[in-house]
Amino acid sequence: EQLTLKVASVIWRIFAFIILRDIYPGESSEQDLHEQLADLAKLDITMLETPDPELTYIFRHIITQEVTYGRLTFAQRKHLHRATAVWYEKQFAGELAPFYPLLAYHWKNAEDPLKASVYLEQAGIQAVVHGVVFDGVERRHSFHGEGAGAQAVYPGPHLDQEIGKVEDFRVGGGIFDDRDPFGKTGRHHQV
Q1: Is the dihedral of CA 60, 161, 142, 37 positive or negative?
Q2: What is the pLDDT of residues 68-103, one digit of tens each?
Q3: Cα–Cα distance measured from residue 106 to residue 102, given in angstroms and rounded to the nearest whole number
C-alpha cells in the first residue's frame, strides 16, 4: 500500500486509477490496486472522487499527499514524473493542448527543463489567447473526459511561478544554474 500511495502522490492530490495502474513500477494486478485503494479509503487516507468509468481518487488531506510525496527519493520522483508525462503524451497524442500545464509540471519534476519549457510556452500562449489568468489558487491535477472533449485540471499553486522562471530562462537565453535548476534563485548562465 505504501508504494501505491507514493505513486499516487506524484500524480497529484486527485489521481485517476488508469494512470496509477499504467505507471505503477512493479508487479501488482489491477485487482490488487483496487483492493489497496479500498484499504486506503477505509483508513481515511484516500477516498473515491469519481466512480467508473473515470475512476478517480483523492487524498483526503493534502498534507497526506505532500508528506507521502516527500518520502520518495529524488530518483523515484524523477522516474514517476517522467512516466506520468509520457503517459499523458501517449494517451492524448495529437490532443495535448488541454494538458500543456500538466505536462510542464511533470517534465519539470522529471528534470527535463527543455520539455518543461516547451509545454510552459504553449501553456502561456494558450493562456494569453484564451484570456486565462493563473491566479495561484490550487488546481486539481487530473483529467476529465476523453479525446477532443478532454479537459485538464491544472496542478498546484506554484505553476504561475514556474512559468515566470521559464520565461526568464527563455528571454535571458541561458540555462539555469546546475546547482539550482528551476529553484529559488532563478540564476542562469549565458549560453
Answers
A1: negative
A2: 999 999 999 999 999 999 999 999 998 999 999 999
A3: 6
- Quick count: other Cβ atoms within 10 Å of Cβ 167? 14
How far apart are the C-alpha atoms of 22 and 63, rounded to whole Å?
Answer: 25
Strand partners, 176: 188
Contact of 77 with 84, CB cutoff 8 Å: no
Q: What is the pTM of this model?
A: 0.69
DSSP result, the chain = -HHHHHHHHHH-SEEEHHHHHHH--S---HHHHHHHHHHHHHTTSEEEEE-TTS-EEEESSHHHHHHHHHTS-HHHHHHHHHHHHHHHHHHTTT--GGGHHHHHHHHHHTT-HHHHHHHHHHHHHHHHHHT----------EEESSGGG-EEE---TTHHHHHHHHHHHHHHTEEE-TTSTTSSS--EEE-
pLDDT digits (tens, 9 = 90+) for 98-136: 999 999 999 999 999 999 999 999 999 988 887 765 543
In sequence order, which residues have a C-beta less than 8 Å from that of residue 186 and are 6 or more positions away?
165, 168, 176
